[in-house]
Design goal:
D-Amino Acid Oxidase, Chain A, domain 2, alpha/beta, FAD/NAD(P)-binding domain
């Protein structure tokens, strides 16, 4: 190309957690790196439909600032619609994704990444061993592509990659309900988040949640997409649960949004120097839907795999080693959880047995030690 400033080693589509971490690691390892983001990033920028609960170990790992924490919690309260309850102890925080993502993208910028906001991808194709990328604002070239643009990835759609099977996609609905700190304290507790389950009369494969932030309650519902008959009426069933209905008194709707979450791997996560990370690859906990830490780790692992394969002159092994490295860190466990998920949601008896174990053990321990 005429302008060498538009030529990159690593080109990342999507400035969420996976894309920003991939960008930071790439830049720190000497790769000329660009991230494009279709929306504007900022503390008051794009809204992402997300429960926004993350564990304390991640807070410490990235040294997340206290003033950016919406609320801290000490437990996940478990509710079955037939009245059974439980409590899973564990420290964590709730965050707004726009604030969290801005923090991570700033880290990438500080590492030397070129970040282009409000610049959606238009087209991408491979030519003479390099990718040519067209956006609404420019044309670029790159050797490696990181697809970090979510479950409905435009990148992978343009490249013709297969989509997730219907059994591996969950439809979620999120409402952000504005309320007062006092109301949250009185109705939900000062240091708890809440999850709701029930196969027979509530959600066949999935769950719902109330995750309080500073002065907002994130009200969420998710069900395997091919089992959804009428999402609005099924979500309304959740809102009409006595506990939920009482919790939302004196609250006002601020945002209403639907979103897709993968709960199983995409049929492929690598091809021809293109890596799918985070939701784009289905690298998400199939039981809880937790995706932020796995997006961040997969972004880092993609870059580390590139570096190691270049160093050892084994670029033909990129895909094999990417998945092998993911497996070594966490993917083997997520694959086992995807198998276990079908057993957990087989019936309410099996679900309750899992919830009872989950109070005492991590879900990974339950699955890998076959405690079910």
């Amino acid at each position: 190309m005429e302008d060498s400033n538009l030529d990159f080693d690593v080109f990342i589509i999507g400035a969420g957690p996976g894309g920003s971490i991939a960008g930071r690691v790439a830049a720190e390892n000497g790769y000329k790196t660009c991230i494009i983001e279709k929306e504007v990033i900022g503390d008051k920028g794009r809204y992402k439909a997300c429960g926004g609960a993350i564990g304390w170990e991640l807070v410490e790992e990235i040294d997340y600032p206290e003033d950016k924490i919406s609320r801290s919690f000490e437990s996940l309260e478990l509710h079955h619609v037939d009245g059974d309850t439980g409590s899973k102890k564990g420290k964590g925080i709730t965050i707004w994704r726009n604030v969290f993502d801005k923090f991570l993208s700033d880290m990438a910028l500080n590492s030397g990444v070129t970040l282009k906001e409000n610049e959606p991808l238009i087209h991408i194709e491979k030519n003479n061993g390099f990718y040519r990328i067209n956006t609404n604002k420019g044309k670029y070239t790159a050797k490696y592509i990181i697809a970090a643009d979510g479950a409905t990835s435009t990148t992978l759609k343009i490249l013709g990659w297969p989509y997730f099977t219907k059994e591996n996609i969950v439809l979620t609905i999120t409402k952000e309900m504005k309320t007062s700190k006092e109301n949250i304290k009185n109705k939900l507790g000062d240091d708890a988040i809440h999850a709701f389950f029930g196969i027979e009369s509530f959600i066949p494969i999935g769950y719902a949640w109330l995750f309080p932030k500073a002065e907002t309650i994130t009200v969420g519902w998710g069900n395997q997409i091919n089992l959804v008959k009428n999402s609005r009426s099924e979500f309304k069933k959740f809102e009409n649960l006595p506990f939920v209905k009482n919790s939302l008194i004196d609250s006002k709707l601020n945002i209403y949004k639907a979103h897709l979450i993968p709960v199983g791997l995409r049929p492929k996560i690598y091809e021809n120097n293109v890596f799918a990370v985070g939701d784009a690859g289905g690298i998400v906990d199939p039981i809880s839907g937790k995706g932020i830490p796995y997006a961040m780790m997969s972004g880092q692992i993609a870059i580390e795999t590139i570096k190691n394969c270049e160093k050892r002159d084994k670029l033909d092994k990129l895909g094999t080693l990417y998945e092998k490295n993911l497996d070594r860190r966490f993917l083997r466990v997520l694959k086992a959880k995807r198998i276990a998920r079908d057993q957990i949601f087989k019936n309410d008896e099996s679900l309750k047995r899992f919830l009872s174990l989950w109070e005492k053990y991590r879900s990974s321990e339950i699955v890998m030690k076959r405690l079910l």
